[in-house]
């Protein structure tokens, strides 16, 4: 059962940057708000102090007489307030709760006043917001104490202007902080991820055959990953070595007893005079050869399949390789008086390919031609460059295809119906076809004019 | 000829010994590289047949040491692997030839002859027999200044007959030497090759004589 995926792994870099940016945004917002709060309260405290001083100054100038209270509003009180721009100032003075001068509708404090220490409050007045300071004191009028309240109000446009200016500065500060911190976040994400990127690049640059452990120094957090990777590489390279050793040992352990069997059969053949027994021994020897060839091709095929996944491409001169391979087959063909007729360009025909795969393909082509060629026949091997394709053609004067389809004969373990008497496993042409496919080429069999078959292997150059 | 067979499998070694002795060759058997060194120290051989996987080491290392020591006994390696790169590497190491197990003794004998011919060099390989000159390396016989090329089987047949002049070889003996055991040929197939060889020998006093009901022999007047 598949586990549901809760979140896409995405990119570490994106996640890191996103998280850092969110953090930076929250910090910038907090900075803005706290700067504003501090500025607001500082401005209000300053303004209140001025307003309070003016109110106290008026209250202190009140004089009690025999028949009433003398009110002399000092000029300095208003000049203090007037210093703060275009604000309007209102006042109201009450004696024993009755307004004696000023604006009668100026709102009163909604709680008892505490003498000359001003009480501040904010109200709507004359379609404006005003800040109000209220004080009270006792004045002796005709030996009787009278309660006098002084209320001074001021509109807040100057204060608002200062607060707005402060807010702008706070916003600029927040944005600046955000910009610098965001830039630092990007740099941090990059520097944090640099070792990861370096490691990925170093591992990615390796060829398929490079199974050395990763030895570059990495940060301690990456050490477990690299250790696991190295363990994996060691296991893989061990498995590959075991595969190669297995192929070599399998070949040795199967072919050595076969060699013994064949030698003993040959001895029996030499010592037997009975024609029926000789025929039986010949059949035995043919079976040994059959097994040996099948084993060889099965191991070849295994090697080809494994190499197709592990290709090691190099520059190969197809002309030289073909000549070498023909030389390898020369002695065996010569024993049966079979000759080779070569038409191979003198100039190198270079292509990028896996040498072992190409060798397997050409070997099987030549092996097939030698096997099916008539005694004393001539096998023609030609290599030509046609456009961007190299075309290798091996033609024999054997029994041909008898109308069988090319695709049928190149299938696994498929053999023609006219070759039951010739040793073969049916894997040879499969190997050729797989090598052709691995290199983006093409392989087909055709009838040869005048008898025999041609094997045509096309491989892209470059 | 005298062979040294270096092979750790006793069954295979005994069979090869017996089989080669049927063709009149002497074979000493060494089961390990150390054993092989002992044999080489006390006797001389025409050719070494060397296995690759041996209990006390790799045959290729032995081969390399053999060549470094400037010993020129020819070596044919018996390998269980057929990859071409392996073969090329073997030849580079100093092997004269290689043969893949399981091997055909006809092929082995042909390869041995080819190696020895090559080793002797062109000049030394020229053999004069009565009024003809035989060059096994170039596969030609020259009669009265006229060179005639021999095909491989004709060459091998001539070599076999030439090894025992006046000796009678049966059709069966010649077939066994000339054809692979896997090839289903009747003894009469030899007649074709005898016929061709006779044609190449025309004009010479050397003749292939039919001994009715027995076989053939090479004669000179």
β-strand number of chain A: 14
CATH fold-level name of the largest domain in chain B: Rossmann fold
* Structural category of chain A: alpha+beta
Biggest β-sheet strands, sense, barrel of chain B? 5 strands, parallel
CATH class of the largest domain in chain B: Alpha Beta
Describe this structure in words.
The complex is a heterodimer of chains A (462) and B (221). Chain A contains nine helices and 14 strands. Chain A is an alpha+beta fold and 462 residues long. Chain A folds into three domains: 13-165; 210-310; 312-462, Heat Shock Protein 90 (2-Layer Sandwich). In chain A, the strands form four sheets. Chain A has a five-stranded antiparallel sheet with strand order 4-3-7-6-5. In chain A, strands 9-11-12-14-13 form a five-stranded mixed sheet. In chain A, a hairpin with a 4-residue loop joins strand 1 (63-64) and strand 2. In chain A, helix 4 packs antiparallel against helix 5 (275-309). Chain A is rod-shaped and about 170 Å long. Chain B folds into two domains: 2-110, 3-Layer(aba) Sandwich (Rossmann fold); 126-219, Orthogonal Bundle (Arc Repressor Mutant, subunit A). The two termini of chain B are 28 Å apart. Chain B is an alpha/beta fold and 221 residues long.
């Amino acid at each position: 059962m598949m586990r549901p995926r809760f979140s896409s792994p995405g990119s570490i870099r994106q996640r890191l940057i996103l998280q850092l940016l969110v953090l930076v945004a929250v910090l910038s917002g907090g900075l803005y708000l706290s700067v504003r709060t501090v500025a607001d309260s500082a401005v209000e405290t300053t303004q209140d102090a001025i307003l309070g001083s003016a109110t106290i100054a008026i209250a202190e100038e009140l004089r009690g007489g025999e028949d009433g209270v003398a009110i002399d509003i000092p000029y300095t009180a208003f000049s203090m307030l007037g210093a703060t721009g275009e604000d309007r100032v209102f006042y109201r003075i009450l004696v024993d709760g009755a307004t004696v001068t000023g604006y009668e509708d100026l709102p009163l404090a909604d709680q008892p006043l505490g003498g000359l220490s001003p009480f501040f409050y904010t109200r709507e007045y004359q379609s404006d917001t005003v800040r109000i300071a209220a004080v009270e004191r006792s004045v002796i009028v005709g030996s009787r104490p009278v309660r006098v309240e002084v209320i001074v109000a001021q509109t807040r446009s100057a204060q608002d202007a200062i607060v707005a200016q402060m807010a702008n500065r706070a916003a600029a500060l927040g944005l600046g902080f955000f910009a610098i911190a965001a830039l630092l976040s990007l740099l941090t994400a990059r520097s944090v991820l640099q070792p990861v990127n370096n490691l990925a690049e170093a591992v990615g640059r390796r060829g398929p055959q490079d199974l050395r452990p990763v030895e570059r120094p990495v940060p301690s957090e990456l050490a477990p990953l690299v250790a696991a990777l190295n363990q994996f590489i060691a296991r893989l390279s061990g498995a590959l070595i075991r595969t190669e050793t297995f192929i070599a040992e399998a070949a040795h352990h199967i072919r050595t007893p076969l060699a013994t069997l064949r030698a003993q059969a040959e001895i029996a053949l030499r010592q037997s005079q009975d024609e029926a027994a000789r025929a039986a021994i010949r059949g035995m020897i043919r079976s040994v050869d059959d097994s040996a060839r099948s084993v060889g091709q099965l191991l070849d095929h295994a090697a080809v399949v494994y190499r197709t996944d592990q290709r090691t491409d190099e520059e190969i001169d197809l002309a030289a390789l073909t000549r070498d391979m023909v030389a390898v087959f020369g002695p065996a063909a010569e024993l049966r008086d079979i000759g080779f007729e070569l038409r191979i360009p003198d100039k190198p025909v270079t292509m990028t390919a896996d040498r072992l795969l190409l060798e397997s393909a050409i070997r099987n082509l030549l092996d097939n031609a030698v096997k099916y060629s008539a005694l004393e026949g001539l096998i023609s091997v030609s290599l030509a460059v046609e456009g961007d394709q190299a075309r290798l053609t091996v033609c024999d004067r054997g029994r041909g295809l008898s109308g069988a389809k090319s695709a049928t004969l190149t299938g696994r373990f498929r053999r023609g119906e006219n070759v039951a008497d010739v040793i073969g496993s049916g894997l040879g042409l499969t190997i050729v076809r797989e090598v052709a496919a691995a290199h983006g080429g093409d392989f087909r069999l055709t009838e040869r004019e005048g008898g025999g078959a041609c094997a045509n292997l096309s491989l892209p150059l470059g | 000829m005298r062979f040294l067979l270096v092979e750790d499998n006793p069954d295979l070694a005994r069979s090869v010994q017996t089989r080669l002795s049927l063709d009149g060759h002497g074979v000493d058997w060494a089961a390990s590289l150390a054993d092989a060194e002992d044999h080489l120290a006390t006797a001389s051989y025409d050719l070494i047949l060397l296995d690759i996987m041996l209990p006390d080491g790799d045959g290729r290392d032995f081969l390399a040491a053999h060549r470094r020591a400037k010993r020129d006994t020819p070596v044919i390696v018996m390998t269980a692997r057929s990859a071409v790169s392996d073969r090329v590497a073997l030849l580079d190491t100093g092997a004269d030839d290689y043969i893949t197990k399981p091997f055909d003794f006809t092929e082995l004998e042909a390869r041995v002859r080819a190696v020895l011919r090559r080793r002797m060099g062109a000049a030394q390989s020229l053999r004069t027999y009565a009024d003809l000159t035989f060059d096994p390396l170039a596969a030609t016989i020259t009669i009265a200044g006229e060179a005639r090329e021999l095909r491989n089987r004709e060459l091998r047949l001539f070599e076999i007959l030439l090894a025992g002049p006046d000796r009678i070889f049966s059709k069966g003996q010649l077939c066994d030497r000339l054809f692979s055991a896997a090839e289903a040929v009747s003894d009469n197939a030899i007649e074709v090759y005898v016929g061709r060889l006779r044609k190449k020998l025309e004009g010479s006093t050397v003749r292939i004589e039919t001994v009715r009901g027995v076989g053939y022999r090479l004669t000179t007047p």
